[in-house]
Every structure is written in C-alpha cells, then in structure tokens.
Amino acid sequence: MSHSSTIKKGFDRKHLVVMALGNIIGSGIFLASGTIISLAGPAAILGYALGAFIMFLEVMFIAEMSIVNPAPGSFRVHASEVFGRGVGFVNGWMFWCSGLLGMAGEVTAAAIFTRFWFPGIPLWVFCLIYSVAMTAINFNDVRGLSKIEMWLAFAKVAALVIFVLFGILAVLRVLPISTGINYTPFSSLGAFMPNGMNGLLQAMILMLFSYTGTGIIGLAVADTNEPEKDLPPAIYIICLSITVLYLLSIFFIIVMRPWNTVSGATSPFVDILQGVGIPFAGTLLNIIALSASVSGLNSAMYSASRMLDSLSRGKQAPALFQFKNKNGVPIYALGVSSIVLMLTAVLSYFMSESIFIILIGASGFLAMFNWLTISVTHLFYRKKVLRECPEKLKYKVWGYPSVTLLAIVLILGILATSPLYPGQVASFVTGISIIILLIICYISLKLLRVVR
After folding, report:
1. Quick check: 221 and 70 in contact, CB under 8 A?
2. How much helix, strand and coil, in percent to the nearest 5, is found in the chain?
3. Where are the domains of the chain?
4. Which is the most buried residue in 103, 215, 223, 438, by most CB within 10 A?
C-alpha cells in the first residue's frame, strides 16, 4: 500500500468531533462577540440562536450528500454533479478564499490576544510570527497540530463551560458581580433590543462567522473510516455542543456586563473575569482564547489546503497542488495559502484597528454564500440520488424540501443585511468582488480551454 493510500483514511467519530469543534470555536465567539453585543445589545442571543439553527441544517445537508458520495472536496464535488463544473469551480475557489480570510481573521485575533501582555508591540509583528510558525508546523504534520489539537479543542470547550459555571454562580449571587445600576436586559423590548431590529441585523454576518467552520466536516469525510456510521452521531454532538455553549456564554456575558460597556477591541470573556478580581482568571482565559485562535487557524489552514488539493484533482487548479511530501501534506497547496496568509501582517500594519472586523466580515459573507450553494445543491441533489441510485440515500435530512427552502430564504436574508453595518461595507464589497472575479476567471479559463 502506498503512503498516500495509508494517509487517506484514518478519521473516526472522535476525530470528526474534535476537528469540527477546533474549527468552529475560535475568535468568532471569544473576540467578535464583543462587537456583536455592542451592535445588537441583549438581542444578540436571538442572532446566535438563529445562527445555530442554520448551522445545524447546513451540517445535515453536508452529511446527507457526503454519505452518498464521500469525495475529496465534498460540497464542491456535489455542486459540480448537480449544476456543472462551473459552479463547482466557483464554489471551491470561494471556499478557499473564505478559508484564507478566516485564517487571516484568526491570526489577527491571536495577535490581539497576545498584545494583551505586550501592548507596545505592533499587531503586524505577532501576525507574522504566528503565520510563519503555523505554516512550519503544518508542513511537518498531515493535520498540523493534530498531536495537541484534541487538548486545544478540550481547552476551548472547557473555557466556555467554566465561564458558564462562573455565570451561574454570579447569577446566584455566590460571586459578587455588580452589573450596574438598574441593568435589566430582559425587562422590556427596548431593554432587550436597544438598537432595534437594525442593530440585530447589522450583527448577523459577524454572528454567522462564529459558526462557519463546519465546512471541515465535509472535507474530512473523505478521510473518514466509516462515514455512514460515524458522521450522523458526530454532527449531533457537534451541533448540540456548540449551540448550548454559545447561547449560555452569550447569555451570561449579557447578564454580567451592561451591553453598552462591552468593547469590540478586547474579549468580553477576558474583560469580565479580569474585572471580578479573581487572581490570574483574565490571564488564564486570554491564554485559552489565544489557543482557540491558533487552533482555528490550524483547522482553517487544513481546510484551505485540502480544497486546493481537491480543485487540482478536478483539474480546476494547477496539478502541483496535489503533490504531497513524505508526511502526506499537499505542500504547494499549503504554501500558496500560507503566503497569502502572511500578507495579513502587511494589512495589519496599515489598518491595525479595523482589520479584524473587515476580515471576518468578508470571510463570513463568502461562507454564507457557500452555505447558500450547499443548500441549493441539497435541494436538487436529493432528487438526483432518488432518481439514479436511491439505495445510496442512507441518511436523510428531516423535513425535506421545506427545511432546505427555509435555509435558502434565511441565508439570502442574512446576506442582504451585510451592508447595514458601516464597518462591514468593505467586507461586503470584498466578498462580492471575489465572487465576480471567480466567475470571470472560470469563463476566461474555459474559453482558453485551461479548465474543463
């Protein structure tokens, strides 16, 4: 058996859960939640609940299609099967671009968390250090930080669990936390939604970014021993864990800190624990938040490089992106992704204050577009499978086609909210520009007969 076939399989249910939690839990909850609460107020919890619902639907769509055809590239391949190679090309490259922006967002978050201890050092220095370090680690390991990824994922989950327990003790008055005079976030509609529906809508793309690491599930299916057996229970564990931890964490942030004192520049988790006076609590959580960003960066790096590998296999990217080193790492795919990531250091030099929101906003916009194509693909893929090979449909999403149509409507509505927040206009323009550029690229390469 060749080395490549040896590394092809190997993930089980535990690996899927750990990789997904590692990819989803990151700066979207630990850092971006501050900006989200400052925009939406206590109503942020509604947005997070809606995001969890959409995430659950998307993961089920990916699972159904991936069990039918657990191909490398997952939803890109499924979109190609239904709509043709052009849609698969745009979908795959769009996922890669979203992954790059997500990587850039995570490395920026890691730099922000590190500056907690070194406030005098510019952001771009830490961005460069983390970019180089994570690239080196990934070149030497097929799953990057796989040897410690389980511990990193455990640390992130544990941090959220501890914060929730801390919140429960605070609400029960076991811990002395003063939230402010007459702060009652759930007493009236005005208190719950202080900036109105507009404030909630402005924050929706950023909220959805907190859930967008689910694409790794589809990409990892091709490396899974028994997709039909392992995938369904894994997705329920993943979705339930994320939903409960996110909603409870946001609830206790809202309860323990007046929404208009929450800052987008620092982690609300760290701010709250630091303000209570528990020795080293803020520092400890900042370390965990930093590890969450590093872990999210690692998982995004895996996803981006594997999507390039998949595009190359489909003859929609240069053949050299398939080349693997002795460790099974697609080194050129990883190298290109990492070079683009390092440009984040340059961007952070010129726009250190706004870069994080712009990056995660653009990544969230493209991720939403990917979720949209996954939903539309699922709408037609079920019909195709039932027509051609119904025996392969071993896992079915409940409520089809109604829930699929509901997901499409919800995502279209959220995409439409993107320009409402002034800080996200640049993200909206970036996302739309990338999509248009990819369509033009495909048409041009098709005419030149470079791609099929």
Report:
1. yes
2. 75, 0, 20
3. 12-447
4. 215
Residue-level pLDDT at 262:
84
- Does the 12-447 domain belong in CATH 1.10.760.10? no
pTM: 0.83
* CB contact set of 149 (below 8 Å; sequence gap of 6+): 18, 19, 22, 143, 295, 298, 299
Cross-strand pairs, 330: 324
DSSP state of 224: B
pLDDT tens sequence across 437-447? 999 998 998 88
| pLDDT above 70: percentage of residues in the chain | 88
CA–CA separation, 38 and 383 (whole Å): 44
Q: At what angle do helices 123-139 and 85-114 cross, to 10 degrees?
A: 120
Dig out the tokens for 171 from the structure. 């609400």
Judge whether 357 and 205 are in contact, CB under 8 Å: no
Compute the Cα dihedral for 92, 303, 73, 445 and give only its sign.
positive
Beta strands in 27-151 (DSSP E): none
Euclidean distance between CA atoms 285 and 270, whole angstroms: 6
Instruction: State the Cα–Cα distance between residues 423 and 128, nearest whole angstrom.
Output: 24
**CA–CA–CA angle 252, 363, 296 (5° rounding):** 60
Crossing angle of helices 331-350/85-114, nearest 10°? 50
Nearest to 329 by CA among 126, 71, 134: 134
- Provide CB contacts within 8 A for 313, sequence distance 6+: 72, 73, 322
